[in-house]
Amino acid sequence: WELTGLNKNEFKKKIGEKQIRKFRRAWDVSPPPIQDNNKYNPKSEKIYSNLPSNKIPQSESLKDTYNRVVPYFDSKIAYNLKQNKNILISAHGNSLRALCKKILNISDKKISLLEIPTANPLLINFDENFKVSDFEYLDKNRKKRITFNE
User: Fold this and answer.
1) By C-alpha distance, which of 97, 93, 99, 95 is closest to 119?
2) CB 73 within 8 Å of CB 89
3) Pick from 104, 100, 132: which is nearest to 116 by CA?
4) Prediction pTM value
5) At what angle do helices 17-25 and 8-15 cross, to 10 degrees?
6) Which of 109, 119, 114 is nearest to 99 (CA)?
7) 28: Cα separation from own chain's centroid
8) Are 94 and 120 in contact (CB under 8 A)?
9) Which sign, positive or negative, has the C-alpha torsion 44, 47, 49, 52?
10) CA distance readout (Å), 7 to 2, 20, 137
């Protein structure tokens, strides 16, 4: 099944709610890869024309996203945080889930429970040892519970 280009209702009809949740929330389960002839395949986008095709993923699990996003966080963002700079990160939900997994030390099993509300910033404060000292959603009425390791 190809899922890129379908809306959520089309997803449900095609593969069912349980499988959707698995693709969207599981740690290491990837959706089926996009086919080369799919009009949504990023390989056909001009913006990616200078990238080797093996560097453009055909599918991506949260684990893949984590492995792509966390090195950038470690090399660029963490450095600025350690300089006591305030950083605003705005990103796709899966990228944010990957960062929250790292920053809040959420287990592989519990990460599937993390729901990130749209447009509700999560303020995270760090102590002098760069450990999370506290965090809170700015809109308390739309906050989501964050479940940590068991």
Assistant:
1) 93
2) no
3) 100
4) 0.83
5) 120
6) 114
7) 12
8) no
9) negative
10) 12, 12, 28
Segment holding 126, helix H or strand E: strand 122-126
**Which 3-state string (H, E, C) describes 127-149?**
CCCCCEEEEEECCHHHCCCCCCC
Of the chain, the percentage scoring pLDDT greater than 90 comes to: 47
Q: Provide CB contacts within 8 A for 117, sequence distance 6+.
A: 137, 139, 142, 143, 144
Residues forming a β-bridge with 123: 136
Query: What is the DSSP secondary-structure string of 1-48?
Result: ---TT--HHHHHHHH-HHHHHHHHH-SS-PPPPPPTT-TT-GGGSGGG
**103-150 pLDDT tens trace:** 999 999 999 888 888 889 999 999 988 899 999 999 988 888 786 655
Token pair for residue 36?
Answer: 């080369």
Please name the amino acid found at residue 44: S
How many beta carbons lie within 10 A of that of residue 34, not counting itself?
A: 20
**Total number of residues shown for the chain:** 150
